[in-house]
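Morning. Coffee machine broken again, so started the prediction first thing and wrote up yesterday's gels while waiting. Chain of 72 residues, entered below exactly as on the submission form.
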Amino acid sequence: MDKLDKDILKLSKLCKHWADHNDSHKESFLKWRNIAKEKGLESVVVKLDNAIKMLDKCNEFLLTANKELELN
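Came back before lunch.
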């Protein structure tokens, strides 16, 4: 396996790792979003909801990149 192949394999694994790592952050965001909702902090809830949506979109891109790299 040449250096380019190793780099592609590494990048593929990193994309999957980053998406998994984001999922752990998402769990924390959801927990604290619910606490903010209980406290009546609606503007904070909206911002955390937006952050969660952005994490989901980020993961979509990372996992798509991962699939493309696996085809190489």
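The mean pLDDT is 95. Going to sketch it on the whiteboard this afternoon.
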